[in-house]
Amino acid sequence: MNTSAALDPGELTAYRRFSRSEWAALRASTPLSLSADDIEGLRGVAEQFSLTEVADIMLPLSRLLNLQVAAARGLGVVQDTFLGRPVVAPPYIIGIAGSVAVGKSTFARVLRAALSRWPDHPRVELITTDGFLHPTTVLESRGLMQRKGFPESYDLRRMIAFLSAVKAGEAEVSAPVYSHLTYDIVPDRAQVVRRPDILIFEGLNVLQPSAGAPLLASDFFDFSVYVDAEEDDIAEWYRQRFLLLQRTAFQRPESYFHHFRDLPEGEARAMASKIWDAINLPNLRENILPTRERARLVLRKGADHRVQEVRLRRM
Ligand SMILES: Nc1ncnc2c1ncn2[C@@H]1O[C@H](COP(=O)(O)OP(=O)(O)OP(=O)(O)O)[C@@H](O)[C@H]1O
Ligand SMILES: CC(C)(CO)[C@@H](O)C(=O)NCCC(=O)O
Q: Distance, CA 104 to ligand 2 centroid (Å)?
């Protein structure tokens, strides 16, 4: 099986396809005038993100989302008026899905910065589903340490309860926090969300069905994005990130991968490939890629991380 760009006829009718330049041209409808400094500021949120990526991909998307937020608020007014209640806009929730190492969190950080520049929705929060992984003690007791990222490794009830509380407009909603350094949930720490204008909810599992549970994460989404790329490219990004972490985070004694800190580069690459092939690639094929066609927007990246094609669902 591969993750090639080929689409079946059903998908072709569901989505409009845009080349990079066609999508970039939609920036023309962006009334927000960003100075060169503003754009540089957005890029600073994630140094890997190039200026052209911000201008060509992120600005049209932030405009589309700005219009969508306004429309969703309009519908909220209709419902509150019908119910005779004071009008309160619930947070607009955007799900971001895709493989391990495809660049979801990088993309989400830049999207957050871009959306928060709009005066009508300055308060944008970002939560990753990593925090809803079961802690290591639970994963170990269930024999799931080699299944991290698979559906059974998450506390889905807690994840759905979190989204439900945010959408219901609760004043403060807490999410657990995961550390990539210790490879575990951080005890006694929480990330608190306080009625943001927009919540970006990022993780490989956000578009997945939840076995047996009545609600899915995507039931709470107003919009969703799938970050897509060739399997081989993602595997290489995973290896590159592993090598970077080896030179940085793994050097710290509290790192779960501290014992890999002095592996020669060839062996470190082989170790990264082994973890990729054993865990993250099967998870991509079995559980993540099958959710791609649920997304409203699919961004297809090339080997250089630049988005080459955008597919937008017809609604
Ligand atoms: N637009 C980009 N340009 C260049 N490099 C990028 C870009 N986006 C991500 N990367 C790099 O690709 C790697 C994976 O990115 P990131 O950590 O954002 O992925 P992720 O999908 O959030 O992964 P995970 O699911 O493991 O958290 C990182 O090394 C990151 O620096
Ligand atoms: C925490 C997840 C599942 C998602 O971010 C991922 O980073 C992970 O830890 N995968 C398990 C195999 C690995 O260490 O790459």
A: 13
Summarised one tens digit per residue, pLDDT across range 147-164 is 999 999 999 999 999 999
Pocket test for ligand 1, best of 106, 110, 178 (most atoms within 8 A of CB): 106
Dist CA 111 CA 130 (whole Å): 19
Domain 9-313 part of CATH 3.30.450.150: no
Lining ligand 1 with CB less than 6 A are: 48-49, 53, 98, 100-106, 204, 237, 240-241, 305
- What residues line ligand 2, using a CB cutoff of 6 Å? 100, 130, 148-149, 204, 275, 279-280
Query: How high is the pLDDT of residue 2?
Result: 45
Known binding residues for ATP are 98-105
pLDDT digits (tens, 9 = 90+) for 67-125: 999 999 999 999 999 999 988 889 999 999 999 999 999 999 999 999 998 889 899 99
Q: Which residue has tokens 């400094």?
A: 37
Query: Which token pair is 153?
Result: 């490794």
